[in-house]
Amino acid sequence: MVSIFFPNGSFRRPACYKRFKRLNERRYHRLENAKSHDVQDDEQRQHVNSLEIQQLAEEFASCRKILLALGDENRQHLIVEMIGIGKCSGVRVGEITERTHLSRPAVSHHLQILKDAGLVKMRREGTKNYYYFDADAKAMNGLLHMLMHTKRIMEDQPDRSCIK
Predict the structure, then answer these.
(1) CATH value of 65-138 in 1.10.10.10, 3.30.565.10, 3.40.190.10, 1.25.40.390
(2) Which of 4, 122, 117 is nearest to 62 (CA)?
(3) Ramachandran region of residue 90, left (φ > 0), alpha (ψ -120 to 50) or beta?
(4) Count of beta carbons in the 10 Å neighbourhood of residue 130
(5) Under 8 Å CB-to-CB from 67, ≥6 apart: which residues?
(6) pLDDT tens-digit series, residues 31-67
(7) CB count in 10 Å sphere of residue 18
(8) Alpha-carbon gap, residue 134 to 90, rounded angstroms
(9) For this UniProt entry, which segments traverse the membrane (predicted)?
């Protein structure tokens, strides 16, 4: 039996109890239907998100070499120094060694990693090697695509700063 309680402590049954009961049943069914639709929408969103996240993970894995090459502080310093030297025709290991705290073998090692990642190329003239920037278009485009995809996914996410 349904009763209505008042703040002063009294209570009574509503005069139109059957109508009241039907209204509540309709509200309940409407809420249940809305919840089931929300659950279906959430499942579809999660499925799409999981596929998109999986694709992003594959893109990230394909960019691993370039990210590792750019992630090292010494290689970042080498890139800055090579840009600072400003020779478009290329820079020799000795020139870079003079401007950094690294030894010749260390500079050669880091340049090799940058070369393997597709950021730097080498030109040989006799016994001299000249290193220059000629970023591999495929590697750079892959990195840019992965970063834009990451940005798009992050923008589509709801604000999670207030979730506890």
Answers:
(1) 1.10.10.10
(2) 117
(3) left
(4) 16
(5) 60, 143
(6) 666 666 555 555 555 555 788 888 888 998 988 999 9
(7) 8
(8) 10
(9) none
